[in-house]
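Hi there, hope your week has been kind to you so far. It would help a lot if you went through both lines with me. No rush at all, and the record is pasted right below:

***
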Amino acid sequence: MKDYIQIKEMLNLKLGNVEIEVGDARNIRLPDNSVDGIITSPPYSIALDYVQNDIHSLKDLGYDISEIREDFIGVRGNGRSRVELYNEDMKKSYNEMYRVLKPNKYAVIVIGNATHQGQEVKTVEFTIEYMESLGFSMVKNINKIIFGLYNVMKKENILIFKKEV
């Protein structure tokens, strides 16, 4: 916290109010053109089944695993249908991002290609193509090496998009 305050003062930052809401990126309860910026890292659940990975903790906390599995992005379906369902969920999320983001503002997506059943899933290319089809323009694509997830992913990309008017 001390570092945050020091940096804020050093850069003379004037920060507005922040509200944190629990929700679903596929159905955001915000007005159109109301958000100044978006930074997100969608789940890598095609490559890593988060529900299965955390099943014991989720059960201990009293969660219904089948209900979570049904709602969670990227863990529904099997084989190719799992990838297709993931892509459909991501399209819904990207549509919502476009809807709520103000014109001439930026969306940053940290995402990487994953491997599912031995096949590379080109989520980076899918994201770029779909975001551009919505009316975003690609500002920058930064490659970033991932340390510690070599069995699942070796790198990810930081994609910076601008919502054009």
Summary: The radius of gyration is 18 Å. The chain has one domain: 32-163. Residues 18 and 143 are 30 Å apart (CA to CA).
